[in-house]
Amino acid sequence: MAFGKNLAFFLAAAGVALFAIVFLPSFDPFWSSWRKGRQVAEMVVLNATIYTSDASLPFAEAMAVRDGRILRLGDYSTIQDLIGDGTHKLNYNGNVVLPGFIDSHVHLILGGLQLMRVQLGGIRNKEDFLAKVKEAVKEKTPGQWLLGGGWNIDLWGGDYPEASWLDDISPQNPVWLSRMDRHMGVANSLALKISGIRRDTPDPAGGIILKNSDGEPNGLLVDSAMELVLNTIPEESLEERREALFVASRHALTRGVTTVVDMGRFFTAASVEDSWLDLSEVYQWADSLGKMMIRVCLFFPMPTWSRLTELIRDMGHRLSEWIHVGGVKDFADGSLGSNSALLHEAYEDNPINYGIQIVDFDWLSNATLHSDMSGLQVAIHAIGDKANDMVLDMYSSVVSINGMRDRRFRIEHAQHLLPSTAPRFGQEMVIPSVQPDHMLDDAATAEKKLGIKRAHQGPYMFQSLLDGGARLAFGSDWPVTDINPLKAIKTAIYRKPPGFEHAWIPTERISLDDALKAHTISAAYACFLDQELGSLSPGKFADFVVLPANSWTEFAENPSNFVSATFVNGKQAYP
Ligand SMILES: *[C@@H]1O[C@H](CO)[C@@H](O)[C@H](O)[C@H]1NC(C)=O
Ligand SMILES: *[C@@H]1O[C@H](CO)[C@@H](O)[C@H](O)[C@H]1NC(C)=O
C-alpha cells in the first residue's frame, strides 16, 4: 500500500512538473525565449572599443543590454545568440566606450543654481568682472538680491574685489558674489548694511570680516563670517531648486557623468536643513514623477546623523534606482585659496596664519564615533596637512574603539599632505576623495602660500596615495570647478596647470588606467555602489559613455575633453 501511495504521489508530482515545463513558459515572451534556450537583448553595442573598468575582462568589443542592465560582454560571437529580431543594434566602428563617470564630490543643486546665476568663473580682469555684474543688475528689480560667484583673483593679478567696486553699479540691489571655492565672498555696502555688519562687528568663531585701512568692513567675508550675509539672503524658491536639479543633471550628462555623490548644500551651520529639504522636496519629488536623469548618492550634514540613521533603518540605503542614501559629511578646515586650510607650519605669505579649524574637534570626534557606531559612512573635508593628520588620527581612534568593519571612511580633498601621511590612507583604508582640477587653480599661488619646498612636495599626491594602496576616488567639487571627468583625468595624468612648462611634481603623475578607475570603479567603491555601478560588468546598470576617439591608441595618446554620447540604464540620455 505504501508503495502504491508513493507511486501515485510521484505520478502527480511528475504531471505538475511536466505541465510547468511545457505550458507555463508560453505565457510570457521571456520564458518562451528561455525555452528556446536563449534570452534576447534589448540593445547591443557592437564593434566598439569597450574599456570595462573590470579586471576580469578589461576590454570588450560588444555588449548586450536588457532591462537597463548589462547581460554580457565579449567579442561579437560571445553575444551573438542574444540578438533577436527586436534588438536595437548600435554599431560604433571602433569608438571608445567607457563606464558612465561617477563624480565623487559635487554640490549638485548649487551647481544648477550657479548655472542660473551670474557666473564669474574664468574672468580675467576687473572691467569684465564689473561689466558682468552691471548687466545682471539690469535684470533685477530694486531690492532684489544679486547672487553669483566663481571669481578667482589669481586670474587678474591679485586685487580682491571690494564693496567699493560694486556700490556704484549696484546701489539699490544687495550683492553677494562668492569666490570660486565658496570659502570667501564679497558683499556690496547695501548687503553689509542689511546683514548688520558694521565696523564694530566682531569676527565670528571660524571666520573673518576683512576691514580696510580705516577699519571699515571692506565687503570681503571669510568662512563662517559669510553666514552673516548668507543668513539674510532669502532662500531660493522651491521651483528654482527643482529647476536647478534639471539644469545640473543635463549639464552632468553632457560631460558623461551618470552618477554623482552629492555633498549637499552644507557650507554653514545654518544650511544643515537644506540637504533634508532637497531630499524630500527636490530629489524624491523628481523621482516620483519619473524625472530623474542621473543617479545620486546623497551625503547629509554630520549634525543630523541620528536622523539619517533612522531613515536608513526605515527605508534602507536605496530609495530607488536613482536615489541612494550615503553617509554623513563635515569639515575639519577651510581652503588653501582662502588661506584657511589648516597647516602644520604657517602660511609663507602670512607667518601668523596657520589656517582655520572650522568645527570643534571634540565635537567632530564624538559625532564621528557615534555616526560610525550607527553604521554610517563618514566623509570629512580636510585640505591642509594638519587637518588631514588630525582626521586620520581621529579615524584610527574610532576604529580602535568601534572595531574593524568595512566602513570606507573618506577624506574629502586630501589635498596637501606631509610625505609621511600619504601611505596612511592605504594602510588605514581611508579613501582619499580628491579633485584633480583644483590643481589648475591652485598652482599659480602654491609657492606664494606654501613656499617652494612645500609647494613641490605635498599637493595632490595621487601616485603616492596609490603606491600606499589607497583607492583613489575622483570628483570635481562642482560648482567649485566645472564638472568634467575627462578633463580631470587629463589633469591627473599630465599635471600641467596653465603656464607650466613641465608637470607640477612629475612623480605624482598617474597612469590613464588608474585615472579612469578613479572616476569609475573606485568612485563607486568609495560610496558603496561598486556592486551596481562603476564598471561594465554583467548584472550592473548599463550606464556608459561613447567617445569620439576611434581606437584606444587614439584616446590614450590624446584623451579628449568631451563625450559624444551618454547612456543611462541602456538608454541614450545625451545628446
Ligand atoms: C561590425 O559588426 C557586424 C556585426 O553586427 C559585423 O558583421 C561587421 O563585420 C563589423 N564591422 C566592423 C567594421 O568590424
Ligand atoms: C557624544 O555624542 C553622544 C550622542 O550624540 C551624546 O549623547 C554625548 O553627550 C556626546 N558626548 C560629548 C562628550 O559631547
Automatic annotation (TrEMBL):
The chain crosses the membrane at residues 7-27. One of its GO terms (molecular function) is hydrolase activity, acting on carbon-nitrogen (but not peptide) bonds. Gene3D superfamilies: 3.10.310.70, Metal-dependent hydrolases, Urease, subunit C, domain 1. InterPro entries: Amidohydro_3, Metal-dep_hydrolase_composite, Metal_Hydrolase, YtcJ-like. The keyword Endoplasmic reticulum does not apply. The keyword Membrane applies. Keywords: Membrane, Transmembrane, Transmembrane helix. Residues 93-574 form the Amidohydrolase domain. It holds the Pfam family Amidohydro_3. It comes from the Eukaryota. This is Amidohydrolase 3 domain-containing protein. The lineage of its organism: Eukaryota, Viridiplantae, Streptophyta, Embryophyta, Tracheophyta.
